[in-house]
Specification:
This protein is of the alpha+beta class. It folds into two domains: 9-58; 63-206, PH-domain like, CATH 2.30.29. 50% of the residues lie in helices and 24% in strands. The strands form two sheets. Strands 1-2-3-4 form a four-stranded antiparallel beta sheet, with helices on one face. A hairpin with a 4-residue loop joins strand 5 and strand 6. The protein starts with 8 loop residues before the first helix and ends with a strand. 10% of the residues are buried.
């Protein structure tokens, strides 16, 4: 019966080395074999150290995750149009008998524009913090990774399209934000989240029909 061929590189080297020695010269074999094992161990340690260094570099540098250009333009349009159209209508209606009614009707319009500004988010991650950027409001919310206990990204499919949220639970609070990253950016962001917070999940479901 033929013996099975060695699979690893170190086994192949050891087999070649053994064939070079006789039973009389076993001492020479074991001396070189110990050197071979040491070299293999050093190679593995170097490879592991390199891998860990790359992972550490990936987690320590700042990474930005931005919404798509279409999403950005759409929110800017809604916000700008909503905030500008109100004062214009009020200006022309100020002498009208229906001025008060006009102002009352414009309140939901203005609130919708402000809501569109507040609900637009980009994301940033570094070794210590997760940032939620509300770019149209020129502000950001910061979470310390060590305080985050779980993260859920939930996408709900409707007949008209999809809507997504990201829910961040910490030791003290539970916060929810609208979420609109494009697919490739979402995959990269999700990998970073799972690395920093193991209890991270992505859920996709269909909205119940009314």
């Amino acid at each position: 019966m033929k013996s099975s061929a060695p699979h690893s590189t170190s086994e192949q080297k050891a087999n070649t080395l053994w064939q070079q020695f006789t039973r009389v010269d076993q001492k020479g074999f074991w001396q070189q074999y110990e050197g071979l094992l040491q070299a293999t161990s050093n190679d593995r340690a170097t490879s592991l150290a390199t891998s860990l260094a790359l992972q550490k570099k990936m987690l320590t540098r700042k990474r930005y995750f931005k919404s798509s250009s279409d999403n950005y333009i759409w929110h800017i349009f809604l916000s700008t149009f909503g905030l500008l159209i109100g004062p214009i209508i009020i200006y022309y209606a100020i002498c009208s008998e229906e001025f008060l009614l006009t102002v009352i009707c414009l309140i939901p319009w203005t609130l919708g524009a402000l809501g569109s500004m507040w609900s637009f988010h980009d994301f940033e991650a570094d070794h210590k913090y997760l940032y939620i950027h509300k770019k149209l409001c020129f502000t950001r919310i910061r979470f310390t990774w060590s305080n985050i206990t779980s993260i859920l990204i939930a996408e709900e499919i409707h007949d008209e399209g999809t809507s997504s949220i990201i829910r961040i639970q910490t030791n003290k609070q539970d916060r929810e934000f609208s979420y609109g990253l494009p697919p490739k950016t979402h995959e990269k962001f999700l990998r970073v989240l799972k690395t920093k917070v193991p209890n991270t999940h992505y859920k996709k479901s269909r909205a119940p029909k009314i």
